[in-house]
């Protein structure tokens, strides 16, 4: 990966709200296919990016998926950086297809949600970047973490959507960029009102959300 020049340009942020009916169909189909909504979203994103980039089957899209470990550690809503991450390759356009890719993604990510994996990951970070200068750490990250897109999923938020005379229609984010060229970051939140997608990039694909929605609808058909 290469870091983008600091030229004063501003990132663009776009949003898409998936209707509760589509989210319910996606959740029902994911459950029937033995996977998760997150796995299905990753597979849908990978398929959409492969179409936009002209990426042939057999050349997977690499998705960086951060994961919250508060529940794993029993820390409630502590406000600090408590995340693991993994880059998962996804190839829904080839074998084993959309739902096979979704199952593979969910399985690989589930294997990281253990205390043993957390300990091993922290030990690796301590060994590799503990004594590095900032520039050296930045170059290490560029070599070890090349990705096509980031999908940060906050999951189903434990909030009601009615507050007296007020209602929560959508919650957008996260929108955090790492500083690489051609970076595409997606934030996902779910409430009772549906699923909200936030797309942050300096070089966004104009038709991405339209294609993604079509691919998700087709996968649920």
Supply the number of helical segments.
7
Output the structural class.
alpha/beta
Task: Give me the strand/helix succession.
Answer: EHHEHEHHHEEEEEH
Indicate the percent of residues in helices: 25-40%
Give the beta-strand count.
Answer: 8
Largest sheet: 6 strands, mixed
| Average pLDDT | 90
**Proportion of beta-strand residues:** 15-25%
Tell me, briefly, the overall form. Answer: globular
Which sequence of strands runs across the widest sheet? 1-8-7-4-2-3
Distance between the termini: 37 Å
What Rg is obtained from the alpha carbons, in whole angstroms?
18 Å
Uncertain runs? none
What does this molecule look like?
The protein is an alpha/beta fold. It is built from seven helices and eight strands, in the order βααβαβαααβββββα. The chain has helices at 20-32, 37-53, 70-73, 97-110, 115-129, 134-144, 208-220; strands spanning 12-18, 61-68, 83-90, 149-156, 162-163, 166-167, 185-191, 194-201. The strands form two sheets. A six-stranded mixed sheet has the order 1-8-7-4-2-3. A two-stranded antiparallel ribbon has the order 5-6. Helix 1 packs across helix 7 and helix 2 (37-53) packs across helix 4 (97-110). The protein is globular, with a radius of gyration of 18 Å.
Give a summary of the structure in a few sentences.
The protein has helices at residues 20-32, 37-53, 70-73, 97-110, 115-129, 134-144, 208-220, and strands at 12-18, 61-68, 83-90, 149-156, 162-163, 166-167, 185-191, 194-201. It is α/β, with parallel strands linked by helices. Strand 7 and strand 8 form a beta hairpin.
